[in-house]
Design brief:
218 residues
Length: 218
C-alpha cells in the first residue's frame, strides 16, 4: 500500500474490486492534545489505554458500480498505550439508512477486506464486536463537528484557535493511514457506551480531515 501527499491511499490487491471514496473523517480519543499514537502507532499514548472513535461520512464514492454517496459510519476502539502492539477491540456502527449493497460495501472497506487504509488498521484488531446498524447523525459546521447515535454516542469537537484566529491550526504532511495528510487540530467531548467500549472525554485530542481513498483492483 502507498500513501501519497495528495491524500490518496492506493492499494493494488490481487482479488480486489476497484473502489474510491471521498468525504469527512473526524476523531476524538482520551489522549491529551495531540495524541502521540496519532503521529505514529509506535509512540506511547497519554494513558494506559487509548480509547476513542472515528466518524466518517462519504460524500462521493463508488465500490465497483455501487454508489457510496451519503454513507455514514462510526468506528470505536479500545487499544493499548503502545498501539502498534495490537490487541485492539473494535466496534463498527453503520448507518441504517442505506441499501444492502451499500452496507456490504462499507463493511468490506472498514474491515480491511478490500485494501486501502483500513487494511493496515485491521492488522491491529484482535477483537471485533458484532456490527451494529443504527441511525447516525453527523453535523458539519466548519469549525465544529458533531455525531450522534441515539442512546449510544454523543460526540462533538471544535477547532482549537491559533495566532491567526481566522485560520485553523493544522498538521501538514502527516503520515496517517486513514486521514488526509493535512488535518485540522481540535478538542473533543464524547459520551459513548456500547456495553463493552466506553468513551468519556472532555477537551481531549480531536481532529478532522477530508479523506480521499482509492483502490485499484486487479
Amino acid at each position: 500500500m502507498s500513501h501519497d501527499l495528495n491524500g490518496q491511499h492506493e492499494s493494488n490487491g490481487s482479488n480486489q474490486v476497484s473502489w474510491w471514496a471521498k468525504g469527512l473523517l473526524f476523531e476524538n480519543c482520551n489522549c491529551q492534545v495531540v495524541c502521540p499514537g496519532h503521529m505514529h502507532f509506535s509512540n506511547k499514548c497519554t494513558h494506559e489505554r487509548c480509547i476513542g472513535y472515528w466518524a466518517l461520512r462519504i460524500d462521493q464514492g463508488l465500490y465497483g458500480d455501487i454508489d457510496l454517496t451519503g454513507i455514514k459510519a462510526v468506528v470505536a476502539y479500545d487499544c493499548p498505550q503502545h498501539m502498534i502492539s495490537g490487541g485492539w477491540t473494535q466496534a463498527i456502527i453503520i448507518d441504517d439508512n442505506m441499501s444492502d449493497d451499500q452496507h456490504d460495501a462499507i463493511v468490506s472497506i472498514i474491515t480491511g477486506q478490500v485494501g486501502g487504509p483500513w487494511e493496515t488498521l485491521d492488522r491491529f484488531v484482535e477483537k471485533r464486536l458484532p456490527i451494529k446498524n443504527l441511525s447516525i447523525d453527523i453535523v458539519d459546521e466548519g469549525v465544529a463537528k458533531k455525531v450522534v447515535i441515539e442512546g449510544m454516542l454523543d460526540g462533538k469537537l471544535r477547532d482549537i484557535k491559533g495566532r491567526d484566529r481566522a485560520q485553523p491550526v493544522t498538521f501538514q504532511n502527516i503520515f496517517n493511514q486513514i486521514h488526509s495528510p493535512t488535518q485540522v487540530i481540535a478538542q473533543g467531548d464524547t459520551r459513548y457506551d456500547d456495553g463493552e467500549i466506553a468513551i468519556f472525554t472532555e477537551g481531549t485530542h480531536a481532529l478532522h480531515s477530508n479523506f480521499d481513498w482509492i483502490v485499484k483492483g486487479a
